[in-house]
Amino acid sequence: MIEIKDLVKTFDGFKALDGTNISVPKGSVYGLVGPNGAGKSTVIRHILGIYKEDSGSVTIDGTPVWENRSIKARCAAIPDDWYYFANATIREMMHFYKGIYPSFSVERYEKLKEAFPIEEKKVIRHLSKGMQKQVAFWLALSTMPECLILDEPVDGLDPVMRRQVWSLMMSDVSERGTTVLVSSHNLRELEDVCDHVGIMDKGKVLLERNLTELQDNMVKLQVVFGTDVTELPADIPVLHSSRLGRVFTLIMRMNSDRAMEVLKPYSPMLVDAIPLTLEEIFIYELGGEHYEVKDIVI
Amino acid sequence: MKSKTSLFNVTIFKRNIKSVWPFWGLLSFVAVIPSLFLIMEWIRHGIDTTEFNPFEVKYMFYNAAIYLAPLVAFATAWIAAFFVWMYLYTAKSVGAFHSIPVTRAGLFVTNYLSGIVIMLIPYVIGGALFILTLIIIGVGFHMSVFVLIGAVIIDSIFFFSFATVIAMMTGNMFALPLLYLAFNFLALGIENLFNFVISNLLYGLSFSLSAKTDFLSPLVCLMRNMRTVREYSYNRIGELPETMTRDLIGVSLENGHIMLIYGAVGVIFAIIAFLMYRGKKSESAGDVVSFKPLKPIIHWIYTITGTVILGMLLYYIFSEAEIRGMNVIQGSLCFIAALAISYYTGLMLLEKTVRVFNKKTFVGFAVGAVLSVICCFCMKYDVLGIEKRIPDASKVQEIQLYMGNSYTIDGSNKELVQKTMDFHKNIIENKDLLNARFFDSNDDEEYVYDYVTIEYVLKNAEVLRREYRIVVPRNNKTEFDKAYVDFVSDKDLIKTLLHEDDEYYLSGGYFTLYSYNSELSAKYGLNTDSWDLSDWQTKTIYDAVKKDLEAGNWKPGRNNYSNESNNVIGYIAVFFEKRIERSEDTYYYNTDDLDVNLTPDMTYTLEAIRDLLGLSEEQMEEFVDILIKANEPVDEYQYYYDK
What crossing angle do the helices spanning A129-142 and A159-176 adopt, rounded to 10°? Predict the structure, then answer.
């Protein structure tokens, strides 16, 4: 279990993390989402032991990560800009990983050759960005990680390869109980794979839930009121509303049954509950934090 | 391969060594060249192994330990450090290395050892081959090689540790070599920079390279202070050294402890570097200075150095063409302008932004500006008393005086010491007069120029050196002018010049005639213009010069040095020697010389020369006339240039 408590990190007076709290259950796939500059990569660098916290704590299975060799040996990371040695071939990098990670499995590495059809003797520098990313997955998965930390992991991969790597990761999660923390802006993709989600903004986690709970806790309704209701009643608690003719679209922070009850006194002629996508939850949650989409005409 | 300990990672070590093979490969190639050369010589011509006297081999190894080892270590340490610590300089690589399951202690030890090994590989390859070659060609194995091996290891540890501290201090790959170079020579650089400034702005101070702080510039300190001392046994045939044969009977290393001290400092540096690495923030990758507390220190070092260099340059440009001391207003303006440039560019480099102009930074600049003005005032009014300083006579061990000739005045000669000090005081008191004459007089015919150097060697080994440009009119006008002439002609001083009452003895000499030409050669059958003097010839010339001196035909000091007489027809040098016993069997020589510009007035000396050249009195008269005519006007530089 990855546990971050009250994490604070300041860079030259700028507070990048301001009391961040994250809890990633063991064996879960946790999606960390947030706008640019929210502090997601900073959180990831703390989990990987790259940054030392100014205050707060970062633990994996209750043990602090900083300068902890055994914890780091159980984690693999694929950062957005994966590092490899200049002029190193895939095989040479494999030997390096093998020497560094005690749990590195050559057998698995050989098996994964099928999934990643790239010539091993090729110099990584000469590969395309997408292929380099494949190499990163190939090597990271070969370390048999108990914890996989991913920052924009499928960026640059083609759709087939995206499915391929997600499938490999999911099988690791289901077979070996690997914990995955993934930061991405591709919310549609995260929605398919994540079971937990944390939304970050300005160095803080705004909300952190099980994805199902999150989706249950917010509802989108299309409502048509009677002719006597021309405006949306002020006492209906909505996160966001819009109107097209007589059809109101309401976003409410509650489940659909409760929303129906709230609307009942106004005797709506039609109420239709539509589940929200993760992207919509993200947009409406941050809208409340003044990060809404602005209608700007240039 | 998995590492068994957490402090050393074989995989990273191997990768480090492998990745920089072109570097150590090239150095190894250079290192094997001497051996290859020796082997080829041996194969082609054979080698006379008697030339490889065991002491000569020892001398070679010791010299390599003193000069080669620190020089190579200095040059290669930063490159090795650059390779092994390079990952600290980009966010991407530092993230990769700090996320792998190796602790910082493990990374440090592994990379540190990698760097040392990278530096030593060429020595191991080249050195082993060289030792083997010496054995093969019959020179044999000499234990003194272990001194060289020790020096190589110690110097490598020191310079690599030093480079590692710098590597930890910075987060920028371009800053590493610059800071390494700067910090190696910073102390000496600043010392000499200030020497340069005060020598330009304070009266009587002359610029000469000094090395009081050389212990802070390790390369200079090691190469300057460590010495190989050779001991000889002499077979005396005659009195002069040229007539002796000598055999090398011993070689020893002097000040070897300096190397050991630096070795110990190297270990301390390694520990400091490790502590710095533990505290180094990964996010500092790219920063010129990684540690916040160091930023103001480095900023001010940069600011002060830049201000002094640039300030002096501006002062040269905008002040007088030739600096004659400090003009407070001009100086302050120049130094404040230089401060502004240095201070703010320093901030820009450190903060990686040009937006450094704010109230907070202005306070620092204002403080610097006030200090600059204060320094200009201190220079102008000699607040520290540097210009006026004359040591206490009781503390003087010796005075080295130079006025056309060099004079060594022993501290025990209290009367002459006092006279010299009075003369020194007189110069200081007449600073304005002498400066005005020097800078404003254009009439070379009327004035005589001389340089006077007074160097006090004090009993505590301190040296106080002053240098003055003395300008006096041909017809003495002021009290100072008379005092100057009196001092130059002082009998005690002349005794010192002629070494009449000391242990120096004549050891040789030569004389040369200016404007010697084929006309003279044909007429008088002379086949050279320069004659080396034998023992008796030296004595003859010396006695003749002495007579001319007593008769007032020759005056040392300005008359000798300057072109007061335009009819200088030649030059005489008489050498003196004094034997200094080092131990019962060994000794060395101190030397001095008497320099004389020969003029037609020096009748006794000319007569002695006539005897030496075998000319008659009539011939000599004609001979001198020809020389005078050929010499007019005297232009020694042109003479040598034409020649």
Answer: 10
Q: One-letter amino acid identity for B446?
A: E
* pLDDT at B236 (0 to 100): 62
Q: How far apart are CA B382 and CA B562, in angstroms?
A: 31
Peptide bond into B633 cis (omega under 30): yes
Cβ separation B9–A99 shorter than 8 A: yes
Q: Which two tokens stand for residue A162?
A: 């995206």
Q: CB-CB: which of A50, A51, A99 is closest to B1?
A: A99
Residue reference for tokens 């990855």: A2
Query: What is the value of ipTM here, to two decimals?
Result: 0.89
pLDDT of the residue at B373: 94
A 101-140 → B contacts, CB under 8 A? 101-102
- The CA-based angle B386-B391-B396, given to 5 degrees, is 145
Q: In chain A, what percentage of residues exceed pLDDT 70?
A: 96
Residue ranges of chain B with per-residue pLDDT less than 70: 1-5, 234, 236-244, 320-324, 441-446, 476, 515-519, 525, 527, 557-566, 582-586, 629-643
- CA pseudo-torsion sign A8, A9, A12, A15: negative
Nearest CB to A85: which of B19, B101, B103?
B19
Greater pLDDT, A110 or B199: A110
Six-digit token string for B347: 């901030």
Q: What is the largest CA-CA distance in chain B?
A: 101
Cβ neighbours, 10 Å, residue B436: 13
- Cβ neighbours of A83 in B, within 8 Å: 92-93, 95-96
Q: Is residue B352 classed as helix, strand or coil in its secondary structure?
A: coil
Shortest distance between the Cα of A73 and any Cα of chain B, in A, equals 5
Question: What are A47's two structure tokens?
Answer: 């989990």
Looking at residue A56, the DSSP 8-state letter turns out to be E
Contacts of B353 (CB under 8 A, 6+ apart): none
Residue B241 CB burial class (10 angstroms; 0-12, 13-18, ≥19): middle
Q: What is the DSSP letter of B138?
A: T
State the count of interchain CB pairs (< 8 A) between A and B.
65
How is residue B558 written in tokens? 């300005």
For every residue of A175-198, DSSP letters joined together read: HH--EEEEE-S-HHHHHHH-SEEE
What letter represents residue B151's amino acid?
A
Q: Give the pair of three-digit tokens for residue B302.
A: 């940069």
d(CA B136, CA B485): 70
CATH code given to domain A2-209: 3.40.50.300
CB B454 within 8 Å of CB B401: yes
Cα separations (Å) of A106 from A94, A103, A117?
9, 10, 16
Query: What is the structure's pLDDT at B561?
Result: 42
pLDDT recorded at residue B563: 45
What are the residue ranges spanned by the domains of chain A?
2-209, 219-275
Beta bridge partners of A149: A77, A181
Beta bridge partners of A8: A18, A55
Question: B24: which 2 tokens?
Answer: 């150590």
The full set of domain ranges for chain B reads 10-190+207-284, 294-380, 393-496, 503-642
Q: How far, CA to CA in Å, does B430 sit from each of A289, B293, B386, B388, B538?
A: 81, 50, 16, 12, 40
Q: Where are the beta strands (DSSP E) in B155-236?
A: 227-236
Q: Among residues B323, B339, B427, which one has the least CA distance to residue B375?
A: B339
In contact, A277 and A191? CB cutoff 8 Å:
yes
pLDDT at A189: 85
pLDDT in tens, A30-84: 999 998 999 999 999 999 999 999 999 999 999 999 999 999 999 999 998 899 9
Distance, CA of B195 to CA of B193 (rounded, Å): 5
